[in-house]
Request: fold
Amino acid sequence: ASRQPLAALGFEENRHYVAFDHPQQLQQKVDYYLQHSSEAADIINAAYQRVTQQHMLHHRVVDLLEGGMV
Reply:
């Protein structure tokens, strides 16, 4: 799956989200983050901050009113 749409929104892989390319890799990453919960929490918190600071409904409304892209 392409990760470009997330990058275009300012999300960074392994900072704001964790991606995988196949089911086995998904299982490996799940196992890893179950054993490294503080790293998982860091990613969750970084994603939450990015969304609440830049991607809430009021941000999209401002973008629309200013003629920007959503």
Helices lie at 4-8, 23-35, 37-54, 57-65.
